[in-house]
Design goal:
The chain contains three helices and nine strands, in the order H-E-E-H-E-E-E-E-H-E-E-E. It is of the alpha+beta class and 197 residues long. The strands form two sheets. Strands 3-4-5-6-7-8-9 form a seven-stranded antiparallel sheet. A hairpin with a 2-residue loop joins strand 3 and strand 4. The protein starts with a helix and ends in a 36-residue tail after the last strand.
């Protein structure tokens, strides 16, 4: 039994050493390890100094592979999208009504009236997918997504910019093509989409 523990420890040490030499940082992600490329880790460390990476997953948005990184920073829990080459996409965090800018809070109160606010997410959009790459925005865009429960129990969704202006919804939440390994398939076998290639 002791020999197995030593072999496992040596294998882990070898994995970490090879990863460091290859310029990636192994990060614990649930029950498996996922390597976060050095430029992605450097971008997170530069944006959130002293932050702690808690979990890493991969996802794809409009053809761009993102690492979705959970970061604890200054008492906040953030979900950070970053590409392998270190371009930040979107930073998301749950926020409270009392922490919102006044124009946003005023719009929520005016529009939702007696509805009970269930969740508020702040989306700090720094880069957007375009033509297969993540393009850095000249100025970050802040969007607040509010989910509330109406008087009759129906769910209300509201999107506001940082000035409190209502935004048209393109509810693209959780659009994941399932291609976590970047090989162009979702791991569920071959299927045709009827498109020309």
């Amino acid at each position: 039994m002791r020999t197995r523990e030593i072999h496992n420890s040596l294998a882990l040490a070898l994995f970490v050493a090879v990863g460091i030499l290859a310029g990636v940082s192994p990060v614990h992600a649930g029950s498996k390890k996922l390597a976060l490329p050095a430029p992605a880790l450097a971008a997170i460390e530069a944006s959130f100094p002293g932050g702690k990476v808690m979990e890493v997953e991969r996802g794809r948005e409009d053809g761009v592979l993102f690492y979705e990184v959970d970061v604890k920073w200054q008492g906040r829990e953030l979900e950070v999208e970053v590409t392998a080459d270190g371009v930040l996409g979107e930073i998301q965090e749950d926020v409270e009504l009392k922490t919102l800018p006044k124009p946003v809070a005023d719009s929520i109160k005016a529009v939702l009236d007696q509805a009970k606010v269930r969740k508020i997410e702040k989306h700090d959009i720094r880069g957007v997918p375009h033509a297969g790459v993540c393009v850095q925005l000249a100025k970050a865009q802040i969007v607040y997504e509010i989910k509330a429960c109406g008087k009759q129990g129906g769910m209300i969704k509201l999107r506001l910019d940082e000035a409190g202006k209502i935004l048209a919804g393109d509810d693209d939440e959780d659009q994941d093509d399932g291609d976590d390994d970047g090989d162009g398939d979702d791991g569920e076998g071959e299927h045709e989409d009827g498109g020309d290639e």
